[in-house]
Every structure is written in structure tokens, then in C-alpha cells.
TrEMBL record:
Entry note: cofactor: Binds 1 Mg(2+) ion per subunit.
Record function comment: GTP-specific succinyl-CoA synthetase functions in the citric acid cycle (TCA), coupling the hydrolysis of succinyl-CoA to the synthesis of GTP and thus represents the only step of substrate-level phosphorylation in the TCA. The beta subunit provides nucleotide specificity of the enzyme and binds the substrate succinate, while the binding sites for coenzyme A and phosphate are found in the alpha subunit.
Superkingdom: Eukaryota
Gene designation: suclg2
Compartments where found: Mitochondrion
Organism this protein belongs to: Sander lucioperca (Pike-perch)
Protein's recorded name: Succinate--CoA ligase [GDP-forming] subunit beta, mitochondrial
Principal subcellular localization: mitochondrion
UniProt KW Magnesium keyword: yes
GO cellular-component term (any): mitochondrion
Length: 423
């Protein structure tokens, strides 16, 4: 699957003025399945449907019987959206099914587990389903939207809510902005009782349900802090005919920088659906995203990477990837980056564009020469270096005896890379 350069704009969440958008380095986000997010919420006292998970049809059947629910919902567990309208290669239509018969759960699970589910968001061959979630189906009398997220404009967490849930919040923000409510949270004080009650009222909860919703809001904030989340989005936060406030569906985004103290959470990372190259890159703290072209880009910094891709395109070439080295670069990372780039059969040239601020250009140069020799590089290599220790770096490259084309600036580098593949 290819991804255009403009996907690196990450909004929290988009189209909700006056929230701001923030440019982030591309990275491999922590991927949790739906049941894993529900488990985290459950552990923080957040009200969710009763559920079990199963890896076999017989386990699913037993889980359905244990639920002892009036109605059961069976969901295939994959990371891609659009499961309800997906199709299995077993012939079964839909990755989400409702039934009142526990025996039916076993039959359906038998047509899900081990088969590929194809949706609008999966690769064309679909994704193999290895786990299903069996949950109690609850009626919803009213749906609302609620989220807690980090907002740079407010220097901390913000609550965002709307009485119009169960739909794209961007549509609500565009058509009915007066139905979007926002509460800035003091990171030191936390969510105050009056804030939680006011948000619950703005979401349309009345009477005893207002207090219940406020309690859920505070518990969601506790979860937000506990797992070092950057966003907890519940859509819908629903009201049932029995007078319960339940989080029916949620998305949790985590701060990758907190991995060192969230080992249990990050150990749940499901990488089975991730691009193998991106996964390998992440092992070396490299941010890699594959594109459609044939000129590999080896850059430090997301902004510089995007500029490099754009200038290659301007000169008639097509970038093969977006690879960001970041700041604390070591020679081994440079070597591993070259391994990733040269493993792509589409790559016909490599453009290295380094602006050394906190990056030592000499480290980059040593890594390049080591990679070129050990990997026996067979495609043209254009290198543009600028910044810290650049003169030593240029000396290392020029004395290496390797066929490396030096460039004076980014424009010159892009021209030479495009020309190299046209020879």
C-alpha cells in the first residue's frame, strides 16, 4: 500500500477549531486490537460491554454460552476499519455479526478464523483473522462523542465532546460547530467535578445519567494519564434503555516516547498487519514509509524528507520512500538504513540528504562507506551533506575510493539523482 507525502499531517482530531494541527515525524504507531483497548478501559473502571476473545470456533461457542446475553455481537479482530462491510475469502460477508443464538456464533467464527477479511482499508488480498471478540450486544438509545487529547495550543490535555455521536465528528464540526464542546484540563489539577458534570450536561445526559457520565469521563482521564495516551476517543459514548452509560467503541493513541515505562502496553503491539519494512526500520529507530518511485531518500528530519521528495518530483523523478534518520544517529543505523533501501527492487538510485545540526556528518559518512562496501552497492549514490563536522565527512567520502556523487545543495542533489537513473 502506498501513502502520499501529505499523510504526515496529523491533526488531533481534524476539523475541530480552535484545535491546531501539528507536524510530526512519521513513525510506526502502536497498534492495538479492539479487545485490547477494551481491556485497558475495563482495568481503569470504564464501563464497556462484557466480552471474551477466542482463537478457535469452539472457544467462541463456549464464550457465547458463558456470556448468557440476550443478543451477542461477534467481531473479527483486525486493525483495518470497515469490518462490517468486509468480505471473507470463505464466502462470509461482514466481519461483524449479531445473533441471539450461541450456536450461530460457533458457525460464524468457523468462517472467520483462519480466513482473510478484505475491507476498503486492507490490502487487496485482505488480512487473515486470527482472533474474534464475542461481546454482549446492548441497545443504544442515544449516542454521543467524547475525546481527551493533547492540544499544543492549550499546552496540555483537552476534553472535546458532542451530543451528536456515532458519526464522523468532522462532519458535526463542519455542519454544526455549536454542538462541539471543549474543556481545557489543568494537567496538575486534573478533571474537576464541575468540568466533568458540565461536559456530561453538554453531551445531553440528564438526571442520574449526568452523574454517571461525569464519573466515566473522570475514569477515562485516569486511563489517559495511566497509559501515557496522546488521545482517547470514544465514539459512541452511549446511553442504554436500562440507564447505563457505556463506552461502545474507542480509539487510543499512545506516546511512543513513554515506551520505557509502558512496557506492558507496548508488549501488546500487534505488528502482524504492519508493513514488514516499516517494522524492521522501527527496530533501528528509523521512520520509513514506502512510496511508488525509484529514487530512495535517506534524510534526517521529517520536514527535510518531505522537501527532498518534493524536489525530486519537481525534477521529474519519483521518490521510492520516506526514510527519516532522526537526531541521535549511529553508524549501525546508517548501515541498516542502506540495507532497507537496497532491498527494495524498485530503487534505481539513492539520494542522501543530511543537514547536520545535532547529527554528526562524519558518523553518516562512515556509515555510508561501510554500507557501500559490505552491501556491494550497485545503484548510483548521490550525497549532500551540510552542518556539523561536514569537512571531515566530505574527506571520508572523497578518500573512500567509492563511486559516490557529491552534491552542493538539495536542488543539485535531486538533479543528479534523477539524471543518474536516466543514463
Amino acid at each position: 500500500m502506498t501513502r502520499p507525502v501529505h499523510t504526515y499531517l496529523f491533526c488531533l482530531p481534524p476539523s475541530l477549531p480552535p484545535l491546531q494541527c501539528t507536524w510530526l515525524s512519521p513513525r510506526r504507531w502502536l497498534n492495538l486490537q479492539e479487545y485490547q483497548s477494551k481491556k485497558l478501559m475495563q482495568e481503569s473502571g470504564v464501563a464497556v460491554q462484557r466480552f471474551y476473545v477466542a482463537d478457535t470456533a469452539s472457544e467462541a461457542l463456549e464464550a457465547a454460552k458463558r456470556l448468557n446475553a440476550k443478543e451477542i455481537v461477534l467481531k473479527a479482530q483486525i486493525l483495518a476499519g470497515g469490518r462490517g462491510k468486509g468480505v471473507f475469502d470463505s464466502g462470509l460477508k461482514g466481519g461483524v455479526h449479531l445473533t441471539k443464538d450461541p450456536a450461530k456464533v460457533g458457525e460464524l467464527a468457523n468462517k472467520m478464523l483462519g480466513f482473510n477479511l478484505t475491507t476498503k482499508q486492507t490490502p487487496k488480498d485482505g488480512v487473515k483473522v486470527k482472533t474474534v471478540m464475542i461481546a454482549e450486544a446492548l441497545d443504544i438509545t442515544r449516542e454521543t462523542y467524547f475525546a481527551i487529547l493533547m492540544d499544543r495550543a492549550c499546552n496540555g490535555p483537552v476534553m472535546v465532546g458532542s451530543p451528536q455521536g456515532g458519526m464522523d465528528i468532522e462532519e458535526v464540526a463542519a455542519s454544526s460547530p455549536e454542538l462541539i464542546f471543549k474543556e481545557v484540563i489543568d494537567i496538575l489539577e486534573g478533571v474537576r467535578d464541575d468540568q466533568a458534570l458540565r461536559m456530561a450536561a453538554n453531551l445531553g445526559f440528564k438526571g442520574p445519567l449526568q452523574r454517571q457520565a461525569a464519573d466515566q469521563i473522570k475514569r477515562l482521564y485516569d486511563l489517559f494519564l495511566k497509559v501515557d495516551a496522546t488521545q482517547v476517543e470514544v465514539n459512541p459514548l452511549g446511553e442504554t434503555p436500562e440507564g447505563q452509560v457505556v463506552c461502545f467503541d474507542a480509539k487510543i493513541n499512545f506516546d511512543d516516547n513513554a515506551e520505557f515505562r509502558q512496557k506492558a502496553v507496548f508488549a501488546m503491539d500487534d505488528m502482524t498487519e504492519s508493513d514488514p519494512t516499516e517494522t524492521e526500520a522501527a527496530k533501528w529507530d528509523l521512520k520509513y514509509i514506502g512510496l511508488d518511485g525509484n529514487i530512495a531518500c535517506f534524510v534526517n528530519g521529517a520536514g527535510l524528507a518531505m522537501a527532498t521528495c518534493d524536489i525530486i518530483d519537481l525534477h521529474g523523478g519519483k521518490p521510492a520512500n520516506f526514510l527519516d534518520l532522526g537526531g541521535g544517529v549511529k553508524e549501525r543505523q546508517v548501515y541498516e538504513a542502506f540495507k532497507l533501501l537496497t532491498a527494495d527492487p524498485k530503487v534505481e538510485a539513492i539520494l542522501v540528504n543530511i543537514f547536520g545540526g545535532i547529527v554528526n556528518c562524519a558518523i553518516i559518512a562512515n556509515g555510508i562507506t561501510k554500507a557501500c562496501r559490505e552491501l556491494e552497492l550497485k545503484v548510483p549514490l548521490v550525497v549532500r551533506l551540510e552542518g556539523t563536522n561536514v569537512h571531515e565527512a566530505k574527506r571520508i567520502l572523497s578518500e573512500s575510493g567509492l563511486p559516490i556523487t557529491a552534491a552542493e545543495n538539495l536542488d543539485d542533489a535531486a538533479k543528479k539523482a534523477v539524471a543518474a537513473i536516466k543514463k
